[in-house]
Amino acid sequence: MFKKNMSNSIKLIQYYKLINHNLIFNNKAINRYKKDNFEISEDKSNNLELLKNSIIELKNCNLKRQAKNMVFCDGNPKSKIMLVGEAPGANEDQEGLPFVGRAGMLLDKMLAAINLDRKKVYISNIVNYRPPENRKPTEEEIRRYLPFITKHIEIINPKILVLLGSTAMNALIGNNVVISKMRGKWIEKKFGSCKTSVIITFHPAFLMRQPAQKKMAWIDLKMIREKKNKLNI
Ligand code: URA
Hints:
alpha/beta, Uracil-DNA Glycosylase, subunit E, six-stranded mixed beta sheet, 6 strands, about 15% strand, elongated, binds uracil
């Protein structure tokens, strides 16, 4: 009996060797998000490259299928001020850069009003591909891209994070808030290892439709200027 069991075990071991069992079975859990779960290192440009690649490698995304280009960022990765918008539009899709259309021109003016420009800040969006017909990204699309923008913020590690409009606000702060109540306030928030002061203001495209709200945006811009001076940025 013992002899028979022994010979079965030997046969089993030989069989496992034959089929290269260790290559087939692995005790580690399957990590389908391996690429965007990379560890952030000291090397910021490498981290950004890894993040960009993980977005490029994203599978089964309807936005990606219909867009011309991926829109990752503009500005200075060393900046301590990061701005996050909603999603690329037609011009951004064409050029592969955020805020280059009409809303972008207004954003440039808003930045200039507090002595900032694109070389002094860093800009990205909640989703990296243009939603067709410039519609808002859906909840599902936002959920898909949220780990990327969160990681993006963590890599840039800004001291001031400006959320432009309610899509960026709801995605990064929560769905239970409204922009009219949240804008013009500083909120301390953590994104991974990044601790930052967040301010929400109106999206430039909204300000083009509702110019009367520009005076509120000006209050927010002055708060950003004050904070920037206080933090010696
Ligand atoms: N609106 C956005 O939210 N982002 C852009 O990049 C352009 C327009």
